[in-house]
Amino acid sequence: MQSTSQSGLTANIGRGILAGVAGTVVMTAFQKFIEMPITGRGDSYAPADFAERVLPVSPSTPQGRTQLNYVTHFSLGGMMWGTAYGIAANAGLSGQKAVHMVFATVYTGDVILNTALGLYRPTEWSTEDWIVDLVDKYVQAQATGLIFDRLLNPDPRS
């Protein structure tokens, strides 16, 4: 039988994963409708690159690669951003404290992991590249936190 704290952690991680996927939807809409029209940046296939590096997958068509990109994009949003927010909530954090802790932790880990895998070269990024990456993922972190705290939190007092 699970302890109350273990079941609470599991429930918070589950809610976090849902919030992370929804936060990724918000970030994707922000990218498509606001950021990309302003910057002129095209679609990123970084999620597909990541999946192809760490999993035995190699889509044979452009459509297959696009599908892999979206599946990986939303999966990482739930598993990384959402799980981290659920753990933060379980530790008693919420609101901007939780969002900023999750953002700092997950963003740093994302850059380090992708750099170690040879997928990112942050020392070669322009100022615009850094700003776009930081802002897009900050939108994701904020949306994940807002959705978790306002829509999925069973304790409306927090």
Give a short synopsis of this structure.
The chain is built from five helices and no strands. The protein is mainly α and 158 residues long.
Mean pLDDT: 95
Termini separation comes to 28 Å
**Individual helix count:** 5
Give the oligomer, counting copies of the same chain as homo and different chains as hetero: single chain
Query: What general outline do the C-alpha atoms trace?
Result: globular
User: Which blocks of ≥5 consecutive residues have pLDDT under 50?
Assistant: none
Radius of gyration (CA) equals 16 Å
Number of folding domains?
1
Strand content: under 5%
Helical content class? over 70%
Structural class: mainly alpha
Strand element count: 0
Largest sheet: none
Order of helices and strands: HHHHH
Describe this structure in words.
With 158 residues, this protein is mainly alpha-helical. It has one domain. The protein is built from 5 helices and no strands. α1 crosses α3, α1 packs across α5 and α4 packs across α5. It is globular, with a radius of gyration of 16 Å. The model has no long low-confidence stretch (mean pLDDT 95).
Record keyword descriptors for this entry:
5 helices; mainly alpha; 77% helix; 158 residues
Topology:
Layout: H1 4-39, H2 46-54, H3 62-90, H4 95-116, H5 127-152
Helix pairs in contact: 1-3, 1-5, 2-3, 3-4, 3-5, 4-5
